[in-house]
């Protein structure tokens, strides 16, 4: 064997300008989208020689960047340039978390590398390049189990200190002012939405994406959109409210659909799943305590967190609708309103549900007369009798001269106060008594105080929670009712 065929194993820390014929063993911590140019992929077998080269037909080529790590401190970027088929092979063969051997890469200083401006920030002053000058695979999966275990343990070692992260609430509050900027985040996965496909009009190609809702202790949820197939597949393994992500250089984008700030994966983005940081348990504890269903949110709003006496901003129904869907939409997802309106729906004596039940242990909504708590880890799951409590869950429509606000919710103690009746006595009432109770409010002008939460990354619909309702004095209505 010739001396130039002998390769030695080097670490990232040992790489310098004179490094040649070496093998780097490292774990993939980030992977860019594969990009193609000069033609179209022909879907040939990997490393199959292109017979078209001899006929003068241009061969599609591509580029892919892998960010590698082999110690707590050391990271480096490796850029692969090759035929489209080779890039497709590497893109499909290696995912984040795989341990690989990189054979005989070229070494260059990253100071002068233009590609480093669009790659993740690393500790090494050098970058690696792999090209297709050989028909032997230069990147292969590592076979040593001991090295694999040691290197995969690095996947949970944070790349930045948690103190360098920004609360989601600060980013959302900045609004469009930070659009295009990049920030470090420590967040919990709140929801992983199904993969969706769209057709790009300009190229007529079908592209896939996935939305993942992220939250932290400061904000209930911000959408991060993933376009990379690698990240889409990786996100399938994330468990809502249990997976913590440390995201380095997440890009801020303004979502026209949600009318608020969102996040995206930038070429420089690196995501660490379940990092070894002391804040992890606090985040998970907070995530487990938040309201998870719409009824939970409504009950939380009705619990007295906002004193109804402080809600004095008078709005018509149209103004409320404009604040939620129209021209007056603001970046804050919650506001309050005092609306002088007629109650046009209050179905206390009909078929509409007016009383719901929830588990006394975890407060989860329970459906069905004999059903137990749906959570298998809750004590109420094994105690259908005596493990539930009833509460008012009313759907109310209010109408004024500008329109109708449908689907308002009036729940729990707010409903008991308004109706002057608790759930137990209400259940004992006859239909005639319930009808009489309904007509005490139906079609009468009332002063309705609401907390409104706009649809957002977390909710697909607006929530209108009535926190106080009383028959309005006609003189007060005449003096304060707005035209618009």
Explain the overall architecture:
- This protein is of the alpha+beta class and 484 residues long.
- It folds into three domains: 8-40 and 58-153, Beta Barrel (OB fold (Dihydrolipoamide Acetyltransferase, E2P)), CATH 2.40.50; 162-289, OB fold (Dihydrolipoamide Acetyltransferase, E2P) (Beta Barrel); 294-480, OB fold (Dihydrolipoamide Acetyltransferase, E2P), CATH 2.40.50.140.
- The chain is built from eleven helices and 22 strands.
- The protein has helices at residues 84-93, 145-152, 168-174, 229-235, 280-289, 294-301, 317-324, 412-419, 423-428, 431-438, 474-480, and strands at 8-10, 22-31, 35-37, 61-69, 75-83, 99-103, 106-109, 126-130, 139-141, 182-192, 196-200, 205-216, 219-226, 244-255, 260-273, 334-346, 355-359, 365-366, 388-400, 403-411, 445-453, 463-471.
- The strands form three sheets. Strands 1, 2, 3, 4, 5, 6, 7, 8 and 9 form a nine-stranded mixed sheet that branches. Strands 16, 17, 18, 19, 20, 21 and 22 form a seven-stranded antiparallel sheet that branches. The protein has a five-stranded mixed β-barrel with strand order 10-12-13-15-14.
- Strand 19 and strand 20 form a beta hairpin.
- The protein is elongated.
- The termini are far apart.
- Belongs to the MEIOB family.
- Keywords: DNA-binding, Meiosis.
- InterPro entries: MEIOB, NA-bd_OB-fold, OB_MEIOB_N.
